[in-house]
Design goal:
heterodimer, A: mainly alpha, Four Helix Bundle (Hemerythrin (Met), subunit A), 6 helices, globular, B: mainly alpha, 2 domains, 1% strand
């Protein structure tokens, strides 16, 4: 009896937590699209990222969740804010229409990108298998897979990022000669 | 007897949780873990504010706060934190007219909340981590990175040029120093073979030998510890890296437009962040709750942890009393041209150390130590000279006429 009560409690808490996180994520995303001040938009995007990270954690994907926080909130959100401040300024411009004139084209591009991501996911046979009891993978397992089975993609990504880093340094260094 | 003293808080928790009905146990267990941490480090915060001012006073040849009395009894200033708390709570909370009210309100919350969360993965004693996460160290750095966002929110929402300058400085500093901070921990993770703080501490135990294998007692560990401490000082915005606040240049940077309790929250958040990073330094390099040698293991593990922790806090205060503030270019040069290369070299040293461990010939140990120590000391000297423009001549001072 007590055990069933405990289980019911946990299931209920879990679903409550999920709905809170879903609301945070979706509200953050909607606010990021509709708010007029770019810094507010960027902060809302950060909130949305945080919601996604917490959903990962709720699914027992510890490593992915922490990596999401580290990369998206710690780096990407800060970078977006930096870029906004360095380029546009944060003043809301008057007389700008709510929708840009090229919105049908934007919609088409979005739909294409979504299809490109969704199609491979839907076509994977893995999706139709039943989920394992515990989806959590220990960090050690992830590390071994990365350094074993997936070492080539890892190296390629490393090379790509290094070249991007060097490229950024070269671009930033150029104006010193003048 | 010794074991029960060592585990007294753990058994206390189990006893308390056992008293409650079963359906409530998960919730009670969480609360019983959180409340002592918040009470303990809250008290640490109060104690540190007064001792920091006392030590600074000592360093600057003055008395420090000594006026607070309770019911006419002299307390030598020990009640200063309570007086400060009452002052902060009763002060008017001023929000600038032009400020972005919501973001201005949220900034101290976004700074303080993650700072508290950092303690959840630090093992404060044997079996005394609030949650024993498999990826605890990753959690620590991930959650710690949220403070950058908070500082930016504070500086930008104040709509004050000093605030904005301060927050831009803070972000440049935090992004730069996060790189050596994380890089300097990687050798520890490599040699301990885990991302869990508890297992990192276990790996530094006495084991079968006489002395504990704290990582700081190895060449790569010492180098990593030094880099970690410098980067940690910068991450927590403390002098000599207090450019974002720099009272004498930009008033108080991102704190300029904060007053009353919100200011106190920022103050709290920064100290809590400092405590957490000091606790992480103890965990990673100073053996966590492990005693230094077999003979001293009768002292409970949590006392070892807090002893080391207190030494580090005094070290941070001492540094603040000693060193002048860096210039922004010096700050960035120190990160990118000194700490990052050293941390990268340290990765190689740690790997060498690991593989030389299996050498079997007669003088293997001294050779291992010699090569690794050389690979640590020479780059330190070399990069320090490069940082100074390659000049080794005595510095020339110019005085105002």
């Amino acid at each position: 009896m007590a055990e069933r009560l405990l289980l019911a409690n946990i299931v209920m808490l879990n679903s409550i937590a999920f709905y809170i996180l879903a609301v945070i994520t979706l509200a953050g995303a909607v606010a990021a699209l509709t708010l007029r001040n770019l810094v507010h938009c960027a902060l809302c995007v950060a909130a949305s990222f945080a919601g996604i990270a917490l959903i990962y954690l709720q699914l027992d994907a510890e490593f992915v969740g922490f990596a999401q926080i580290l990369v998206y909130i710690g780096a990407v959100a800060i970078l977006v804010l930096f870029t906004v401040l360095l380029t546009r300024g944060t003043e809301v411009q008057a007389g700008v229409a709510f929708l840009s004139r090229s919105w049908p084209a934007g919609l088409a591009v979005t739909a294409l990108v979504f299809a490109a991501i969704a199609a491979p996911i839907l076509l994977t046979p893995e999706l139709h298998k039943l989920a394992a009891d515990s989806a959590s993978a220990p960090v050690r397992k992830i590390g071994e897979e990365l350094m074993g089975n997936y070492v080539l993609p890892l190296e390629v990504i490393g090379l790509l990022l290094t070249s991007a880093l060097l490229g950024a340094v070269v671009i930033a260094m150029q104006d010193k000669k003048d | 007897m010794i074991d029960s003293l060592d585990q007294i808080f753990v058994s206390l928790k189990h006893w308390l949780v056992g008293l409650t009905p079963e359906a409530w146990q998960p919730l009670v267990s969480i609360l019983v873990s959180i409340v002592p941490i918040m009470a303990l480090f809250g008290t640490c915060f109060a104690a540190t504010t007064i001792f920091e001012r006392k030590i600074l006073g000592r360093a600057q040849n003055r008395l420090g706060p000594n006026r607070v009395r309770a019911f006419g009894v002299k307390t030598f200033g020990l009640l200063q934190p309570i007086a400060d708390g009452i002052k902060m709570l009763t002060k008017e909370d001023i929000v600038p007219f032009a400020a972005d009210k919501v973001v201005h309100f949220l900034a101290p919350v976004v700074l303080t909340t993650p700072a508290w969360m950092l303690f959840s993965v630090i093992p404060l004693g044997r079996n005394m981590a609030a949650i024993d996460l498999d990826a605890g160290i990753l959690f620590f750095f991930a959650v710690g990175s949220a403070s950058e966002l908070a500082v930016f929110m504070a500086g930008w929402s104040s709509k004050n040029k000093y605030s904005l300058v301060g927050s831009m400085r803070a972000i440049a500093q935090m992004i730069s120093y996060e790189v050596p901070l994380v890089l300097s921990t990687i050798p520890v993770l490599m040699l301990a073979g885990t991302l869990s703080p508890s297992q990192v501490v276990e790996a530094q135990g006495v084991g079968t030998g006489f002395f504990a294998h704290w990582f700081v007692f190895t060449p790569w560990g010492l180098s990593g510890f030094v880099v970690f401490l410098i980067a940690a000082t910068a991450e927590s915005n403390r002098s000599p890296f207090d450019l974002p606040e720099a009272e004498s240049e930009i008033i108080a940077g991102f704190l300029t437009e904060y007053s009353g309790f919100k200011y106190a929250l920022f103050f709290l958040g920064e100290y809590i962040g400092l405590f957490a990073v000091a606790g992480m330094a103890v965990t990673l390099f100073l053996g966590g709750w492990q005693a230094p040698c077999k003979a001293l293991e009768f002292i409970p593990s949590y006392l070892w942890f807090f002893g080391k922790f207190a030494v580090l806090i005094v070290f941070f205060i001492w540094v603040r009393a000693t060193l002048p503030r860096l210039r922004l270019d010096q700050l960035l040069a120190l990160a990118w041209r000194f700490l990052v290369p050293l941390a990268l070299i340290n990765l190689v040293v740690a790997a060498l150390w690991h593989f030389m461990g299996s050498w079997q010939f007669i003088a293997a140990m001294p050779v291992r130590w010699g090569i690794c120590a050389m690979l640590v000391v020479l780059p330190f000297v070399w990069f320090a000279r490069l940082l100074n423009g390659g000049k080794v001549a005595p510095r020339k001072y110019r005085y105002a006429e």
